[in-house]
Amino acid sequence: MKRPMLVGNWKMNGLGRDLEQIEAMARAIKQNPPRASVVICPPPTLLHRMSEALNHSAAVVGGQDCHPLPGGSFTGEVSAEMLAEAGARVVILGHSERRQARGETNEEVAAKVLAAARADLFPIICVGEAKQDRDAGLAVGMVKMQVAASLPDILAETDFAIAYEPVWAIGTGSVPSGDEIVEIHRAIRSILVARFGARGAATAILYGGSVAPANAREILRLPEVDGVLVGGASLKAEAFVQILQACVGV
Ligand code: PGA
User: Fold this and answer.
1) pLDDT confidence bin for 171, thresholds 50/70/90
2) E runs forming strands in the chain
3) Using an 8 Å Cβ cutoff, are 202 and 156 in contact?
């Protein structure tokens, strides 16, 4: 039986009043110790308060991005060390919204992974093809290229996860077929094993993109799917707890 990883990505959502959702999640997690590792990634402004609200509940908090350097004249940026000090244990890197809107490259993502390792944060590295790549039959090749170029060698010595998030599935309600997900996850696994051996075989590969209470169990049951990265459905305790329950017995 798997012990999946369930990661909530709040993106640029969440004010202090939304901590009541986290308190409700923490109560549900305490009542039913989850058969999953649970991470919630709020905006940096909520990290500290959220980590306190989740305290003693088996769930941890994470950041959604970090700068490659520990500090300096970079207005508006947040370093991995700052996330860690605010309570983060994890950081999402290379999300497609950053790759697309901010032009973040694989090389920048790799530099951020080094920063995460330096600050002792567990990196979740996102990859995924655009619609036109999938339509052109290039999905596997695109994702393989992103994985190869976004992972620095230091990952041979530190734990991490990959999240496969097809760009066209994020926030759209469209989800790839089970076969399509498995095909990409297997391609990612083969790169990880070739490069990192036993660590690569044990690395969690998550699926993300329109995961919801109605499809979570089916996705989590697929071979090579070790967890899910959830955007919209992680904002409300009710939906997130239902996804948590879908982790039981997969
Ligand atoms: P979604 O977002 O679950 O709202 O599709 C997933 C993500 O962007 O990580």
Assistant:
1) very high
2) 5-9, 37-41, 59-63, 88-93, 122-127, 161-164, 204-208, 227-230
3) no
Q: Cα angle vertex 232, ends 138, 47, to 5°? A: 110
Q: Is residue 165 flagged as an active site residue?
A: yes
Rounded distance between C-alpha atoms, residue 40 and residue 61, angstroms: 5
Q: What is the pTM of this model?
A: 0.97
Q: Exposure of 111 by Cβ count < 10 A (0-12 exposed, 13-18 middle, 19+ buried)?
A: middle
Short-list 168, 178, 177, CA closest to 209: 168
Q: What is the pLDDT of residue 176?
A: 98
CB 205 within 8 A of CB 164: yes
- Token pair recorded at residue 180: 């399509």
CA dist 136 and 4 (Å) reads 32
Q: What are 241's two structure tokens?
A: 């707890």
Catalytic residue among 95, 97, 104, 129: 95
Query: How far is it, in rounded angstroms, from Cα 159 to Cα 43?
Result: 23
Nearest residue (CA) to ligand 1, atom 2: 231
**Ligand 1 in reach of 166 Cβ (< 6 A):** no
- pLDDT at 23 (0 to 100): 93
